Glycosyl transferase, group 1 (Metallosphaera cuprina), 406 residues
Amino acid sequence: MRILAIGNVFNPSGGSKHVINVLKELGKMGDDVTLYVPATFVRPGDEVLKDLERYVNVHPTVYDVTERRREGRISYFLRSHTVYLNWNDLEEDAESVRKLEDVRADVVYDMHEDSITLRLSYHVARRIGKPLVKLLHEEPFRNSFGRGYRRIMGVPGLAYDTLMWVFYKLDRRAFELAMRDHTLRGIAAVSQSSITLSGIDRMTERYGVRLHVYKVGNAFDVPSNLRRVRGKENYAVFFARLVPQKGTRELPKVADHFDGRILVFGKLFSERERRALSHPKIDYLGYRPLHELYDAVSRAKVLIYPSHQDGFSLVVLESLALGTSVVAYDIPAIRYVYSGIKPVKTVREHDVLGMARAANEVMNMKEEEYESEHNDERVKEFLRVHSSWGNVAQETHDFLSTFAKA
């Protein structure tokens, strides 16, 4: 099968990790994959591209963009949610889209939920006359008023939610436009969460678009020898993108009631978040190499994870793979993927006191009970099927092939 993939491989996020690993595995399976990275996502340096080229074809225009310096870029946030208003303006990708017409493909696979990649992949699919399939990591829009940031950030959060309420209307129209003329033929999701929060299933049913939730939406790369379920140390960890939607504002409130220290790993994006993490019980250790991060997580007794926004949390998955219990909010992304997995404890969203209490209970667990939860048969089976990106790629291949054969 010949796949033209549209994806971001430059972002240090779970979404980019999914894109990179699935494309590699598809290439190993024998699929002929060509990758195009939209200009807005390209960053200086081509190491990740060179690594990918062992398995897939990276379209030459991507390298052209890595060598250009761009001035006066409009915020990606604003542009990404207003593409419906400029549907035919492909901006910096216009020339590349013309060159992509020469790519021989059976299907176009847009590996992000963004409207900005939908516009690009839509025009590519239309030009080459092939079906478009889109992947959702998180919800592309919500039925609710914003994303609940007013609960986290107060008045600024209310302003943000209001803006998102408007943007979601535009995002929804962009998806409807792509479905209406049957260019967008299929939507896959890494978990049920993005479908529940967006209600996109009603839209796909109306326009006859095939909808599929992957049974194995993500995988982990943690070496099995790092898994530790005995001899844990008395501290907690938190690692993620250090932004409010991942719980940085609540973490100090949890720490107030937590009986121990919390080690925090990740990249800070603002001085406000740095100040939020200034707490006697919080040690901010920065963005560390993977082997250091994994070692610290494997020794910790619990991951405290007050995230409000996820699709399929790799942070939780990697913690489980390392033998570390998790306390998280009961948001759909956690509920749909990890329900019934004993080491994953959940509390009501925004209940920081409940989160601290649950984390303290884990800290006080006897070693035998702790080990027993992690060695539960359901946990071991869950980790087994999620231990290979090949499983994710196989399901991806099977879904895409139904469109390539059509």
Q: What stands out?
A: The chain has two domains: 2-219+388-404, 224-385. The chain is about 45% helix and 15% strand. The longest strand covers residues 184-189.
